[in-house]
From TrEMBL:
Coiled coil spans: 304-362
Pfam families, alphabetized: ParB_N (PF02195)
Protein name: Chromosome partitioning protein, ParB family
InterPro entries found in the cross-reference section: Chromosome_partition/occlusion, ParB/Sulfiredoxin_sf, ParB_N
Protein species of origin: Thalassovita taeanensis
Entry's Gene Ontology BP terms: chromosome segregation
Segments of skewed composition (Acidic residues): 641-654
Length: 660
């Protein structure tokens, strides 16, 4: 076997692929995108390693170095690159024509070269800059990559030497080593490394990043961007990084001081504008502390002439926008824009019709905190020492007129909403009856027999077994929860309707019906009876003890057939939603946080909460979410005469709940 190959130079135009090259059947290897780095390197540094060639049919076939050959051809084709033509000669080594191990030679070059260690690569980039005097721009040009990619490698190459040594020795992983690049100061890196490894524990990248956060704030962090101008104006130290977004504001205490000052200024501005007694600021909203705080809400006021004129204009525009939003061809972006406009108008109308009482303003305030990359205001908060226990009241104090004002958070359903809730409850009851055929059959037969044989009044007026299906109307039928509809549809699909053949006379149909199994008959009767259920809230046990007890038996929990959703929450006032979250569901902290949000955001929160209760809920909160429904809808809830709906009013909340 030949052990040495004669050197020679060959014109690029005389080079051709060798059929024995092990990558000859992998054209993707030579794709321009895959050899871009190599092309750039050869353009600047030249061909560092000779090609292995063999004379075939008067040409020099490249046995090893196919990617270099492809890069050379790309350089010829690239008219912007100087110095490379078909006549340009490159260094090669010649394999004799009688060599019988050509495939082995090609394979050896491809598999015997060990891939470069990542840390070696990072450090090599660093030496190119420190020793060779190159810049990130010249390095990027040499290797056909971006300046950002070069700076990324350079950052890892500039990590403290002790940490790089630990990565080489497999004491820490490469990812853990990279995590130290989150802070550009090698001194800070070393201190964190020593602190985290002093007990010999396993070091993780996450732990490193968390520890480095205490050493400053990156300028790309939302807080860093918010305070940077003031921070630098006060002479705060900045640890510069090769990538600007990774530079760090090192004085964490100064960062927090400036943040609190800016939050405080925003809170004070809101205090002056709204007339509150005090203003405060906190970096992160402290839910544990705020749980002891109370909250006041604005109450209704009589708008003056100018305000009433504006309210009328808003009402007219809202009606127009509602019609536009019903256009099924409306694109999502346009719909969302209309929704935002509606939300803004409702908020404006609310501000014109509601205000805090003088008493509440005198004892409440506003806190500004940092959340989600922006300043968040929490308004109407009452400190524990300022909380006044008002007999029979849960919200704000008396209104400015001196008359006793209703609780702004008290839930009093408009008549239209109450009627729709009755309809939804009837649908849920119908689903429960269809799913309990034996019990429903007994009820139906009992009513039929009792009405005929017993003296006196009918045993119940709740079901119409005269075989007329009850028509159910609903203002938002296409938006309600579909659980009961799906359950009824499934019950219908399970019915044996083989006897119901319109081509046969009634006598034949009756004969086929009588031949059915008892269980199939029960399903049919139950489905038919369920279709007659009337719209009503929970039964009054004094007026209809039969249906009251029957509903408790077959529908102990309406939530098995119905789930509150955005369609319902959209029709609630903002104050109602906060009251439900804070009092009914035990989510007081969330209610306090959401109080400064728009009603749209609160509706979305509630919709998501009920669709799939959050994993972070406590057991009691999870149970409350799983069981909640408007009290009069629950089987064992408030009786009908104890939950009479408020009279219909012309206010906007009769159709779309006005933000409160």
């Amino acid at each position: 076997m030949t052990t040495s190959f004669a050197p020679l130079t060959v014109a690029i135009g005389d080079l051709v692929p060798h059929p024995a090259n092990v990558r000859s059947n992998s054209p993707e290897t030579y794709d321009p995108e895959n050899i871009a780095h190599l092309k750039a390197s050869i353009a600047i540094l030249g061909l560092l390693q000779p090609l292995l060639v063999q004379k075939l049919d008067g040409k020099y076939a490249v046995l090893a170095g196919g990617r270099r050959h492809a890069a050379l051809k790309e350089l010829i084709a690239d008219k912007t690159t100087k110095g490379f033509t078909a006549k340009t000669k490159v260094d090669c080594r010649l394999v004799p024509e009688d060599c019988d191990v050509t495939t082995a030679l090609s394979l050896a070059e491809n598999i015997t070269q060990a891939p470069m260690n990542a840390i070696d690569e990072f450090e090599a980039f660093g030496r190119m800059m420190d020793v060779d005097g190159q810049t990130a721009e010249t390095i990027a040009k040499t290797f056909g990559t971006t300046v950002a990619a070069v700076k990324g490698r350079l950052r890892y190459g500039l990590i403290h030497p002790d940490i790089r040594a630990a990565a080489r020795g497999k004491v820490i992983t490469l990812d853990t080593m990279k995590a130290f690049a989150e802070h550009p100061s090698q001194e800070a890196q070393r201190e964190v490394f020593e602190a985290l490894t002093k007990d010999g524990g396993y070091l993780q990248a996450y732990t490193v990043r968390q520890a480095l956060k205490s050493r400053g704030v990156q300028v790309s962090d939302d807080i860093g961007a918010f305070v940077r101008e003031d921070y630098e104006a006060r002479g705060g130290a900045v640890a510069a990084d090769l990538l600007e977004e990774h530079s760090v504001l090192e004085d964490a205490a100064l960062v927090e001081t400036i943040l609190l000052e800016k939050l405080g200024a925003t809170a004070e501005e809101a205090r002056i504008k709204l007339g509150f007694a005090w203003a405060d600021a906190m970096v992160r909203y402290d839910y544990a502390t705020m749980a002891d705080y109370g909250r006041v809400y604005p109450g209704p006021i009589e708008p003056d002439e100018a305000a009433q004129k504006r309210i009328d204009e808003i009402t007219a525009e809202l009606e127009k926008l509602q019609l536009e939003m019903e256009d099924e061809g409306l694109e999502d972006g346009a719909y969302n824009a209309l929704y935002d406009r509606v939300d803004a108008l409702e908020e404006e109308a609310r501000d014109l019709q509601e205000a805090y009482s003088a008493e509440d303003l005198a004892r409440s305030g506003v806190i500004a905190s940092w959340s989600g990359g922006q300043v968040t205001l929490h308004v109407g908060l009452v400190r524990p020492e300022d909380t006044v226990k008002v007999e029979g009241a849960r919200g704000s104090s008396a209104d400015p007129t001196g008359e006793e004002a209703p609780d702004a958070g008290e839930i009093t359903y408009p008549a239209s909403l109450a009627e729709d809730l009755k309809t939804e409850r009837a649908m849920a009851l119908g689903a429960a009856m269809a799913l309990h055929p034996e019990a429903t059959l007994d009820l139906t037969l009992f009513k039929l027999v009792s009405d005929v044989l017993a003296s006196g009044m009918s045993v119940t007026q709740a079901i119409k077994i005269e075989a007329r299906k009850e028509y159910r109307s609903h203002a938002k039928m296409d938006e309600i929860d579909e659980t009961s509809l799906e359950q009824v549809a499934a019950a219908h699909d399970a019915l044996d309707l083989s006897w119901l053949d319109d081509t046969h006379p009634p006598a034949d149909q009756f004969a086929a019906f009588r031949a059915l199994e008892a269980g199939e008959k029960a399903k049919l009767v139950a489905y038919a009876t369920a279709s007659t259920t009337q719209s009503c809230f929970a039964r009054d046990p004094r007026r209809d003890s039969l249906m009251h007890d029957f509903e408790i038996e077959i529908m102990p929990d309406i939530r098995a057939h119905w789930t509150p959703n955005a369609a319902l929450f959209n029709r609630f006032k903002k104050a109602w939603l906060l009251k439900i979250l804070g009092e009914d569901l035990g989510l007081a902290q969330e209610a306090v946080t959401l109080a400064s949000s728009s009603k749209k955001e609160i509706v979305a929160f509630c919709d998501k909460l009920f669709a799939e209760p959050f994993a972070t809920l406590k057991d009691a909160q999870r149970a409350a979410v799983a069981a909640w429904c408007p009290p009069m809808m629950q089987t064992a809830g408030v009786a009908c005469d104890e939950a009479e709906p408020a009279a219909e009013t012309p206010e906007p909340d009769s159709e779309v709940a006005q933000a409160a």
